[in-house]
Design a protein that fits this description.
Elements: E1 5-7, E2 21-23, E3 28-31, E4 42-45, H1 48-56, H2 63-78, H3 85-99, H4 107-125, H5 131-161, E5 169-172, H6 189-196, E6 202-206, H7 213-224, E7 228-232, H8 237-242, E8 248-251, E9 255-257, E10 262-265, H9 268-277, E11 282-285, E12 291-292, H10 309-312, E13 331-334, E14 341-344, E15 347-349, H11 353-360
Parallel strand pairs: 5-6, 5-8, 6-7, 8-11, 9-12, 11-14
Antiparallel strand pairs: 1-4, 2-3, 3-4, 9-10, 10-13, 14-15
Bound molecules: 5-S-methyl-1-O-phosphono-5-thio-D-ribulose.
5-S-methyl-1-O-phosphono-5-thio-D-ribulose binds at residues 61-64, 106, 174, 176, 180-181, 185-186, 213, 252-254, 264-265, 330.
Amino acid sequence: MSHATTSPDRRGSANEPLQSVLWAGTHLDLLDQRQLPEEIVYLQLHTSEDVWEAIRHLKVRGAPAIGIAAAFGVYLGVRHAEGNAEHILAEVNRHADYLATSRPTAVNLFWALDRMKAKAETHARSGEADGEALKAAMLAEAEAIRAEDEETCRLIGEHALTLLSDGIGVLTHCNAGGLATAKYGTALAPLYLAKERGWDIKVFADETRPVLQGSRLTAFELQQAGVDVTLICDNMAAMVMSKGWVQAVIVGTDRVAANGDVANKIGTYGVAVLAKAHGIPFYVACPMSTIDLNTPTGSEIPIEERNEDEVTQGFGKRTAPAGVKVFNPAFDVTPNEYVTAIITEKGVVKAPYGDGLKRLFE
Ligand code: MRU
C-alpha cells in the first residue's frame, strides 16, 4: 500500500528538463513517469515500501534512475529507526534486500544497493557507534549517487559525440534520456550536447511497445528540449533505415555482460539486427555501474516478464481477445557481435569486449 501524495513541479520554467528523482528534505519527490506525457505529477515518497512500489510499477524506470531511487529508498527505510550503528546497519541491509526484489534486470539497482550496504558496513565497523551519524551517511551516499550520475551522463555524452557528426540521423529505442537518469541520459546525452553546439541531428524515436517509453518519454523530453525528433512505430525502423535517414543507432542498456552482450528494452535486439543489415553502427551508452563482469554472457542476465495486460490492454482498452496466451518479456539481449561500441564515462570500448570491458575497471 503506497502512502504517496503529490508535490508540485519544482522547475523554474517549462523549458527546464524534468528531474526524475529529487530529495526534498523530508521525503523523495519522484516524477510519476506512468502519467507522462499527459500530466506532470511528482509523488512524495516517504517509505522504502513507497519506493519499491514506484520501481515495480515503472513510476520510476530506466536503469540509473532505478538505482538512485533505491538508494534513497534505503535511507527512507532507516530514517525513523532508533538504535546504535550496529542496529541501523542491520536495518540498512534489511531494506536494501527488500528493495532488490523490486525488478530483476537493471544491474544498477543492485549496484546502488550494494554501495549503500558497503557504506553502512564501513561506517559501523569504523568504531562509530552513533546510529544517527550512520543514518546521515546513508542520506549523503544516496545524494552522492544521484550527483555522480549527472556528471557521469555528461561524460558519456562527450564520448558519444566523438562518434557522431553534424547533420546525421540517429535512431533510438525506449528511453535512455534525462528521465531515466539524474540528468542528460545515456543514449540521449550526446543529442543534448549536439543541440547545445548548434548541430542539426534528426532523431527517430521508436515508440517502444508495449509500455511506450519511446513515445511517452523520449519523444516528450526531446521535444521539450527543442531537439528535432520524429516518432515512429517499432515496425517502421526498417523502412526508415532503408531510406538512408539513419546514420547511427544509439540505445541505453540495463546490463552489459562481461562478454559485451547487452540487455535492453524489448525490441532492441531487432533494431541491432536491422542496423547491421543496413550497415549502420549500433552504439550502446551506459555508466560503468551498468557493466556486470560477474555475469559472463547475456544468457545469464535475468529477464523480467511483466503482466499480460501491458500487451492486451496497454492503450486503455482491450486490444486482444480475452484469454489469449501472451508472452511479455520486458527486455531482450543483443549479442555482442551486433554492438559497434559501448560508450561509458571512461571512454569508448570496441570488440573484443571481454578484454576491453575488464580494462575499464583497472
Ligand atoms: O522498463 P524500463 O523503462 O525501466 O526500461 C528502460 C530501458 O530499457 C533503458 O533503455 C535502460 O534502462 C537504459 S536507461 C539509461
